[in-house]
Amino acid sequence: MASMASSYRVLFRLVRRPFNYIFKQSSSPTSQISSSSFPQVTQSFCQKLPSCKNAMLAGLLSLLGLQEREPEDPLIHTIKLGILNLQRQDFNKAESMLHIALKMAQEREDRQAETYIFDVLANVAFEKGDYDKAEKLFVDVMKRSIAAGMPRDDNAIVEISLKLAEIYDHRKDTKKAEQGYRFCIDTQEKKLEKKDYLACLSELSDVEKDTLVLWARSTEAFGRHQLEQGRILEAQKCFEDALTVSKKVNGMGHEVTLSLLNDVGTVASMLHDYDRALKLLKEAIAVGRDIKSSNLAVFYCNLGGVLMEEGRSYAEAEDACREALKLANKTNNSEAAARSRDCLEELKKRAPRAVFVR
User: Which region is the signal sequence (predicted)?
Assistant: First the structure.
């Protein structure tokens, strides 16, 4: 049971978030721009904004202190084009535009803009899977920021540390990854210990909300790491903590909240708590249908897997897997489609033949 549930969960937890999401709060230079720059894992605690492009440009202008310049300042315009290409996953074009912007910033001797561009380039490298390059750039951004006077426990430094921990995770450097995750979580908890942040969410400053969200993102990422290491109970607590924050910050009808419902449900199934697993996955599906979630195929496939492992209703399991396959084909989700077919094949081995006559 554990191995099968784990295979479902590991595959689908790595599904990338849509590129039209923006973090609810942000700390590092580029995280103001778009969650697509910081996928995955981090791809957490994001929120749609009514005007993504305007928000991106406004954040960029504010960060670089260019509010008084013309909106189409060449440097700003070029950085914006680089980020838009990053969102479109045209990484080569994004890098080209950002290197043009970097040359412009260097000609102006604008070190703040240079640091910003290096951070975006680091995220491009991360998205491409060039983790050596991403690590080098993130470390450089961190050093430049600290040299400019940024405290080592600043949220921007913590966010970069989280991305570095994820890089070490990708490399299977468990020791460094765990040190990174624990630094992020411990640093944020020290800031959060003086008040009940969830109880007074509406009264928090932007920095305080950012601190809370970054703690939850770090906790979620550490939960994924714990699950990969086979520490199921520890992973369960991490996901539940992150889910609590996402419900408060993002609300129930949000991709991040639904994704975390899926995570908690999957972990519950690994612990043989099938009733809770089914409840959470069905809740994710119900809300997901209302908001037309891009991860519905994932939720249905996981539901089918849990129903199959529980063994109470192979017919329901088949229905869930077939719905998952239909949705996966409709949304061109090849991974979900492959997993749905695997689910159906496994059902054929386990279930009475009569189930598949329909």
Answer: none
In the three-class reduction of DSSP (H, G, I as helix; E, B as strand; rest coil), residue 47 is classed as strand
Grouping H, G, I as helix, E, B as strand and the rest as coil, residue 25 is: coil
Tally of structural domains, the chain: 1
The Cα angle at residue 260 between residues 241 and 283, in degrees rounded to 5: 115
Three-state secondary structure call for residue 22? strand
Phi/psi of residue 298, nearest 5 degrees = -60, -50
What is the C-alpha separation between 94 and 91, in angstroms, rounded?
5
In a domain, residue 255? The reply is no
pLDDT at 4: 40
- In this predicted model, what pLDDT tens digit does every residue of 134-145 receive, in sequence order? 999 999 999 999
- Could you identify the residue written with the tokens 């009940």? 196
Q: Is residue 354 part of a domain?
A: no
Question: What is the spatial distance between Cα 347 and Cα 314, in angstroms, rounded to a whole number?
Answer: 7
Q: What is the pLDDT of residues 152-206, one digit of tens each?
A: 999 999 999 999 999 999 999 999 999 999 999 999 999 988 778 788 888 888 8
> What pLDDT shows up at residue 52?
36
Separation in Å, CA 175 to CA 169, 180, 214: 9, 9, 21
For residue 121, being part of any structural domain is answered with yes
CB-based contacts of 194, cutoff 8 Å, min separation 6: none
pLDDT score recorded for residue 265 = 95
Report H helices in the chain: 2-13, 52-64, 74-87, 91-108, 111-128, 131-147, 155-170, 174-192, 206-228, 232-249, 255-270, 274-291, 296-310, 314-330, 334-350
DSSP 153-214: TSHHHHHHHHHHHHHHHHTT-HHHHHHHHHHHHHHHHHHHTTS-TTTTGGG--HHHHHHHHH
Answer whether residue 1 is part of any domain.
Answer: no
- Cα dihedral sign for 314, 319, 323, 329? positive
Residues 6+ apart with CB under 8 A from 3: none
Q: Provide the CATH number for the domain around residue 69.
A: 1.25.40
Which of the residues in the chain have pLDDT under 70? 1-72, 352-358
Q: What's the angle, vertex CA 203, arms to CA 198 and CA 209, rounded to 5?
A: 60
Q: What is the pLDDT of residue 311?
A: 84
Q: Specify the pLDDT at position 60.
A: 53
